[in-house]
Amino acid sequence: MSELKTATVEVRLPSRMGFEKVAMSTAASVAKLMGFREDRVEDLKTAVAEACINAIEHGNRLNEKLSVGVVLSAGADSLEVKVIDDGKGMSKHQAKPDIDRKMHGEEDPRGMGMFLIQALVDEAEWVAGSNGKSSYVRLVIRLDKDAE
């Protein structure tokens, strides 16, 4: 990434389903410019989409007067993505889902997003904003120089 030492890209999305695709495309473009392998770009796209959907649906509660901010910060060897909403944040003590029970229809199939995100990126952190405002999820995916 010699020509792209550090760069920040910001996108503001309406709180409307479907606009997570804009964030996915933007994240993929930045990751490709940085030299990420295609499989890691796909992981990033899925994680960013899931984080945006959570922000739209749970953070902003589909309130179209609110927007979701996506800030991509490209560094020398990693890409950090913050997805910011106006919600109060996620519970830190959310129970780990039982995948078998979900697969057999014994539990609601929803509620896998946080765990999917954690499996796809190198770091994932959920931060509740002060006074219940502007919570965000911070995702980091590292460039694997050895796999090129």
Write a structural description.
With 148 residues, the protein is α+β, with helices and mostly antiparallel strands. The chain has one domain: Heat Shock Protein 90, CATH 3.30.565.10. Helix content is 34%, strand content 25%. The chain is built from four helices and five strands, in the order βααββααββ. The protein has helices spanning 20-34, 38-59, 99-103, 113-120; strands at residues 7-14, 67-74, 78-85, 123-127, 135-142. Strands 1-2-3-5-4 form a five-stranded antiparallel beta sheet, covered by helices on one side. A hairpin with a 3-residue loop joins strand 2 (67-74) and strand 3. Helix 1 (20-34) packs antiparallel against helix 2 (38-59) and helix 2 (38-59) runs antiparallel to helix 4. The longest helix has 22 residues, at 38-59. It is globular, with a radius of gyration of 16 Å. The model has no long low-confidence stretch (mean pLDDT 86).
Count of strand segments: 5
Name of the level-1 CATH class: Alpha Beta
Helix and strand composition category: alpha+beta
Find the CATH superfamily.
Answer: Histidine kinase-like ATPase, C-terminal domain
User: What is the CATH-assigned architecture?
Assistant: 2-Layer Sandwich
